[in-house]
Amino acid sequence: MAAALMAFTGCVKDEVFKGPSTIEKVVFAPEAPTSHDAVTVTATVTGLQAIKTATLKYNGTEAAMTGSGNTYTATIPAQADGTNVEFTVTVVNEAGFTTTSDKFSYKVGDPATDWTKLKLNEVYGAGADEEKFFELYNASDFPIKLTGVTINKDEELTWTGIDGEVVPAKGFFAIIGGKGTTERGFKSGFSAKKSVLLELFAPDGTKVDSFQRGEKDDSGAWGASLPNNKGSWSRIPDGSGKWMITESFTPAQANSTDGTEDPDVKQ
């Protein structure tokens, strides 16, 4: 009788030890993500049974979480600006019990673009049409999307930015190829030995920067003859300095640190 009672007690004790795991804490970072930020979700899980699977579920998508000790993590890829993201964490332990966390959420939000930080930074017109370029520089600490940004040459539209074209923070973006020689180049020509006006506009039509060399001719047209520049016109330093003639040309890279002044360029 005593032996039977001990066996029963042992079975009850074993069953007590089998139960669901506890998700003690769920955190995510960054807490205020932009459209350029992936979000890392971290869950702290405790319990007497080992975890068999841990899954992050967000907006209809599932991602397996990886574990180290009691900590499990997974990443939600960067989402579009304005997206509401809702997510939960679900764990299944080796005893077969399933535990799901409370629902968490965040909204993706980009800061307003400071268009004054977008600059024409280098222009090159001495090579073949497919080599000529206009370069943009982003002087801000946040990427700038070029969707709807426009460039006029000699007061006529020559380039419009599209979705997916972005200038990184403190980075460069080159528009390479004149006269339609490349898929995302500019439509017009560009000569290193003629007067020219380049104007950069924000999507709302506000002019944010310009490059001018020379003046219109007597007929009121751009394209008057000027000394040929076999190098580039580059801002030194990038984004803020004077326009200088540089022997090297560096599309989508930092400009040369020295050059000579061009008296025909408006500073």
How would you summarize what this structure contains?
The chain is mostly beta strands and 267 residues long. The chain has one helix at 2-16, and strands at residues 22-29, 39-46, 51-58, 61-64, 66-68, 71-76, 84-93, 98-100, 104-107, 118-124, 133-138, 144-145, 150-153, 156-160, 166-167, 172-176, 196-201, 207-213, 232-236, 242-246, 260-261. The chain is built from 1 helix and 21 strands.
Number of continuous helical runs:
1
Shape: elongated
Structural class: mainly beta
Distance between the termini: 103 Å
- For the secondary structure, the number of strands is 21
Mean pLDDT across every amino acid position: 94
Oligomer: single chain
- Largest sheet: number of strands, sense, barrel closure: 6 strands, antiparallel
| SSE string, helices as H and strands as E | HEEEEEEEEEEEEEEEEEEEEE
- Adjacency order of strands in the biggest sheet: 16-11-10-19-20-21
> Which band does the percent of strand residues land in?
35-45%
Tell me the helix content: under 10%
Q: Please compute the radius of gyration using only Cα atoms.
A: 30 Å
Low-confidence stretches: 1-12
Q: Which secondary structure elements does this structure contain, and how are they paired or packed?
A:
Elements: H1 2-16, E1 22-29, E2 39-46, E3 51-58, E4 61-64, E5 66-68, E6 71-76, E7 84-93, E8 98-100, E9 104-107, E10 118-124, E11 133-138, E12 144-145, E13 150-153, E14 156-160, E15 166-167, E16 172-176, E17 196-201, E18 207-213, E19 232-236, E20 242-246, E21 260-261
Antiparallel strand pairs: 1-2, 2-6, 3-4, 3-7, 5-6, 7-8, 7-9, 10-11, 10-19, 11-16, 12-15, 13-14, 13-17, 17-18, 19-20, 20-21
